[in-house]
Design goal:
heterodimer; A: 212 residues; mainly alpha; 8 helices; 66% helix; B: 191 residues; 76% helix; 0% strand
Chain lengths: 212, 191
């Protein structure tokens, strides 16, 4: 049980794809202008990574080693297409906001990396735990970034007006603001990591290695 | 003609793929440590980007659309780009070994470069004609190359600059990218 828990929390904190491994950054900066976009993107991504890891892990003994990468791409692209159509049908506004970044989940290094490094070697239960951890790890960082950007940029919190119009800083919802907020979040993560390294290290590193 | 130039300038400066649209951040952060590498990656990506647009555009309009298979476009485009990269790699290995040895290592990384997929999908969603699509891709490619070279130059200066302890390492890179992106925001009124 402890091992499974560790697999799950691995993606949430220690090997968080965004703030620690720093892969799959593109979508995280582009769509985080409002919290709803952030949540939508995060959940879409989580769905794709969980389903892909489950399928790949089921078929991991059948897929020939030499053509595994094209097979992974086909599986991932299928689920991305599903997410794309579901969003277009039921959440047209959300789909329009995120635009090309939904199809771009296909080439997100996080999914490819986890599928290659974890799902192709582990059983279905552990793979789905790993995928869930990675997906939720991605989602919570997205939500944090988008809360900051939405609060300062548009003066709203989950769409509710909080800051009066004249106090908003448009900079945060534009492109440069995304880079700044992410830079600061990385800085905080590094600082927290450094502080925790001064304490005696507890808990061994799991065998799952980071992707890129 | 002026339309084509406008599309080119717009996709190169106003809608710069890296700095304004947040595409291809992985090579932008990962490969710009050294100007030579950044230029190599930039040229290889630009080349594949234009080539991929030239291949996927007819494929969409002459194969997928007539048979009502538009829903397969994500899948097909990714596979086309991946196989295209392989083909280019084989060809260069055979025909231009010197070029291959300088560009080869970057080619493998390009498959998962999101800017390429995004550009090919954008040309479809913007409903460009073929020539416009090529100019759009050319502009995006130039913009990518420009961003890579600029960032690598900034990083070289940053090696000797004093950064606050808190921001040392990767965070300051993002701050610099933010400043660069802000300066590109100045192009917004150009077109």
């Amino acid at each position: 049980m402890g091992k499974n828990l560790k697999i799950f929390t691995n993606g949430l904190l220690r090997e968080n794809p965004l703030v620690v491994l720093m892969i799959g950054l593109c979508s995280s900066l582009a769509v985080t202008t409002s919290v709803f976009n952030g949540i939508g993107m995060g959940l879409g991504m989580t769905f794709v990574i969980v389903m892909s890891e489950i399928i790949i892990s089921l078929f991991r003994k059948i897929i020939p080693n030499s053509i595994r990468i094209p097979v992974f791409i086909v599986v991932i692209a299928t689920f991305v297409t599903i997410v794309d159509f579901v969003l277009q049908a039921y959440f047209p506004a959300l789909s329009k906001n995120m635009g090309v970044f939904i199809p771009l989940i296909v080439v997100n290094c996080i999914i490819m990396g986890r599928v290659e490094a974890f799902a192709s070697k582990n059983g279905i239960f552990q793979s789905s735990l790993d995928a869930l951890g990675m997906g939720l790890g991605y989602t919570w960082v997205l939500i944090v970034i988008s809360i900051i950007r939405e609060f300062f940029g548009a003066g709203t919190f989950f769409g509710l007006a909080v800051l009066p119009e004249k106090f908003t800083i448009g900079f945060f919802s534009s492109a440069p603001g995304g880079f700044f907020v992410f830079g600061i979040i990385i800085a905080i993560t590094v600082a927290v990591k450094r502080a925790s390294e001064h304490k005696p290290a507890s808990g061994k590193k799991t065998t799952t290695e980071g992707a890129n | 003609m002026s339309d084509l130039i406008r599309i080119f300038l717009k996709s190169c400066f106003v809608d710069n793929v890296v700095l304004i649209q947040f595409l291809a951040l992985c090579p932008f952060i990962g490969m710009t440590g050294d100007t030579g590498k950044a230029t190599g990656m930039g040229i290889a990506t630009s080349f594949v980007m234009v080539l991929a647009t030239a291949v996927t555009y007819p494929l969409y309009y002459f194969v997928l659309a007539p048979f009502g298979l538009e829903f397969l476009k994500i899948l097909i485009f990714v596979l086309v780009i991946a196989s295209l990269v392989q083909l280019v790699e084989f060809y260069l290995k055979k025909a231009a070994p010197a070029l291959y040895s300088s560009m080869g290592v970057y080619l493998a990384l390009i498959t998962t470069n999101c800017a390429i997929l995004a550009v090919t999908l954008n040309t479809i969603s913007k409903q460009y004609n073929f020539v416009e699509a090529i100019f759009y891709a050319l502009g995006a490619a130039c913009g990518f190359l420009l961003a890579m070279v600029l960032m690598s130059g900034i990083r070289q200066k940053m090696k000797t600059a004093e950064a606050p302890d808190f921001l040392k390492g990767t965070p300051i890179l993002f701050i610099a990218a933010g400043l660069l992106s802000m300066s590109f925001g100045g192009f917004a009124g150009l077109i």
